[in-house]
Amino acid sequence: MRKYKRVLLKVINFISIFILCRFLFKKFYKNSKEADYSYLYNKNETDIKACIFILCQNKDQEKLIKTIHELEDTFPHNYPYILLNDVPFTETFKTAISSAVRTRAHFGLIDKKYWSFPKGITKKDVGKNLIPGQFVLFNDRISYRHMCRFESGFFYNHPMLKPFDYYWRVEPGVGFHCKLQEDPFKFMRDNNKIYGYVISLIELKSTVPHLWETVKEFMRKYPQYIANPNSLDFLSHDNGKTWNLCHFWSNFEIADMRFFRSEKYETFFKFLDEKGGIYYERWGDAPIHSIAASLFLEPDKIHFFKNIGYTHWPVTYCPDDPLITPHCQCPEIIDEARDTCNRNLFRLQKKLYGIQN
Ligand SMILES: *[C@@H]1O[C@H](CO)[C@@H](O)[C@H](O)[C@H]1NC(C)=O
């Protein structure tokens, strides 16, 4: 009996030490991970908590410097730049970019946890739900899918983006063509806009064969998250039965991260992430952001920046508008603002709010 008691005491002792260790480890681990970057926002410099957000690699240096110069020529501003990479930036890169920007550039690393496969998915699953025989751009690139996953579900919670409400997403190599007459962040804030875009496109069906079914399942499961009114008409010609593949091209975005940090968006991302389609197919952050913005926001929260002339190869948007065109230096005027995808959204915004795009 006494022997039994001693063994029991030993077990209890062991368990309590184990629990204590776990607690200490977690506490230390958490503290070491969540550095405080609140100083990145300086209210003496900008009234709005906004930044220019760039996900890039060391090899992008030259392209990025050109892009930064074009951005600052068309929009002289005081906002800081937050640059993130999945591997450390080199000193050469940091020096070059720091001297290219008029404000300050801050360089950060993405934790492996947010640039990797989710639980239960491995390399051999990549592309397994695609339709055989259909061509899928970047299908062979695993890092492309990690990037899509990061841009869909994690960037806005990176500790260096946490101090900010708004971001302007810029990619190395993109071009800007029109001198802005107003601060787009101020426009977003003063007009209660949440998601801003320039180009809308038709998605390549082969990359997302089962995305819409999954979205419909989400809508049935979480009807409370669907805004009323919403922009389902932007996504669908038949009231949601099928997706017309319209989406906002997310390599350009000016948006409010508080939307992505909301329960509805986080639940949506988690749901899609667990379905595995980012890897089993090749769901991108563009359709994921676009579907969320269209379903969870009222249509007047989405803004088409018709005054931002923009090129992301191979697509250019350059406004054909007597009030804006004189401020632009475009390779040529390419104004597809009235194409099908935009037309559906504009019609809705006009009908509901009298917004003229
Ligand atoms: C902001 O300006 C005030 C007054 O000039 C100064 O005391 C403060 O240190 C500045 N804060 C930062 C973060 O630069």
From TrEMBL:
The keyword Oxidoreductase belongs to this UniProt entry's keyword annotation: no
Transmembrane segments: 7-25
GO biological process: cell wall mannoprotein biosynthetic process; protein N-linked glycosylation
Name assigned to this protein: Glycosyl transferase
Organism: Piromyces finnis
Keyword Signal: no
Family, as annotated: Belongs to the glycosyltransferase 15 family.
Single Gene Ontology MF annotation: alpha-1,2-mannosyltransferase activity
UniProt keyword terms in alphabetical order: Membrane, Transferase, Transmembrane, Transmembrane helix
SUPFAM superfamilies recorded: Nucleotide-diphospho-sugar transferases
Lineage of origin: Eukaryota, Fungi, Fungi incertae sedis, Chytridiomycota, Chytridiomycota incertae sedis
